[in-house]
């Protein structure tokens, strides 16, 4: 058996123990015994228990991201955001021990980067469609924070006491907060147009502007978008 095979065997054994008994079940002795591997081999491969936990979290993210990729993209980025939310919540509630390890550990950052990038990409598509009323950064943060809050709240609640309608209510509330209906030609839609232009310039930078001018324009567009985030969408007067 190669070291790569041994490593995978240990990670799978740790993943099974995590599902069965939670993080407390992940002692190096228990994982070594479950994998049929000597403890020194575990330390040689992972360094310590923290290294093993990082590997298990990465294993969990691989499963989550495979499901995320399988969703694909539709012509409606807002609906894609909704479907991504549902998948995220379903994963968290069906594999709570994994979710707590993946999102509850401050150290486990690298494994989350691809998941964060996928969420940002969907929000950027919403912006490019002219349907985002806040900046891409703010939109992604609100979706992530709200979804994570819902999942952690439900995980902490006994299954028989969970209000599953909270999932849909929170989802639609955050979508209503950060998105607009299909873009129209009204002047009051200026903030979402600013977000859309900002996203388009990020995707396809123009050589008509110098880097300094591009940065200044981005700052102005972000300022307009942030006004929308404070609920300022009034139609300008005197124009």
Automatic annotation (TrEMBL):
Pfam families: TetR_N. Residues 27-46 bind DNA. Keywords: DNA-binding, Transcription, Transcription regulation. GO terms for molecular function: DNA-binding transcription factor activity; transcription cis-regulatory region binding. It comes from the Bacteria. Residues 4-64 form the HTH tetR-type domain. InterPro entries: Homeodomain-like_sf, HTH-type_TetR-like_transc_reg, HTH_TetR, Tet_transcr_reg_TetR-rel_C_sf. This is TetR/AcrR family transcriptional regulator. It comes from Lentzea tibetensis.
């Amino acid at each position: 058996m190669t070291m790569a095979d041994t490593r995978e065997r240990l990670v799978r054994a740790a993943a099974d123990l995590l599902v069965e008994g939670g993080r407390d079940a992940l002692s190096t002795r228990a994982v070594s015994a479950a994998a049929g591997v000597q403890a020194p081999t575990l330390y040689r491969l992972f360094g310590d228990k923290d290294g093993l936990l990082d590997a298990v979290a990465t294993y969990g993210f691989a499963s989550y991201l495979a499901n995320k990729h399988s969703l694909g993209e539709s012509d409606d980025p807002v609906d894609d955001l909704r479907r991504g939310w549902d998948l995220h919540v379903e994963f968290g509630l069906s594999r709570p021990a994994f979710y707590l390890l993946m999102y509850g550990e401050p150290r486990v950052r690298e494994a989350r980067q691809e998941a964060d990038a996928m969420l940002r990409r969907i929000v950027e598509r919403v912006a490019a469609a002219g349907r985002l009323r806040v900046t891409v950064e703010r939109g992604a943060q609100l979706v992530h924070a709200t979804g994570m809050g819902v999942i952690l709240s439900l995980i902490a609640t006994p299954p028989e006491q969970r209000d599953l309608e909270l999932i849909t209510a929170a989802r639609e509330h955050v979508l209503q907060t950060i998105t607009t209906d299909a873009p129209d030609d009204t002047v009051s839609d200026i903030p979402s147009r600013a977000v859309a232009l900002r996203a388009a310039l990020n995707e396809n930078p123009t050589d008509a502007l110098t880097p300094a001018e591009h940065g200044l324009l981005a700052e102005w567009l972000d300022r307009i978008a942030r006004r929308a985030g404070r609920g300022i969408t009034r139609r300008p007067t005197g124009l």
